[in-house]
Amino acid sequence: MSAAKIVLLVIYAVLAALALTQGDTTVGSWSLRVLGILVIVHAIETLVYFKLCKAAGGSLGGHLLSVFLFGVLHVKELKAAQANR
Fold first, then answer.
1. pLDDT (average), residues 14-43
2. pTM of the predicted model, to two decimals?
3. Do 78 and 63 touch, CB atoms closer than 8 A?
4. What does pLDDT average to over the chain?
5. Could you tell me which residues come within 8 angstroms of residue 28 by beta carbon, excluding any fewer than 6 positions away?
6. How far is CA 2 from CA 6, 8, 14, 16, 19, in A?
7. Where does 2-71 have alpha helices with state H?
């Protein structure tokens, strides 16, 4: 797993922790909003790149989950793997 993906997972964990522990505070509300926006954006990316994930071979579910979590970071890896074929 790349360093960028690890950083992104840490950011998700911090946002989730803030949303859960800060409750109705401004920080908690904004953390939840940012997470919601990320969910929407990554869900759209998953739909947009479905065909690329399907063509990549391997686990379709794994690729879709990776696109949902990491977005363009995983798409770049898929495109690089296709270019090397």
1. 94
2. 0.84
3. yes
4. 92
5. 18, 19, 20, 21, 22
6. 7, 10, 19, 21, 26
7. 3-21, 26-48, 50-55, 60-70
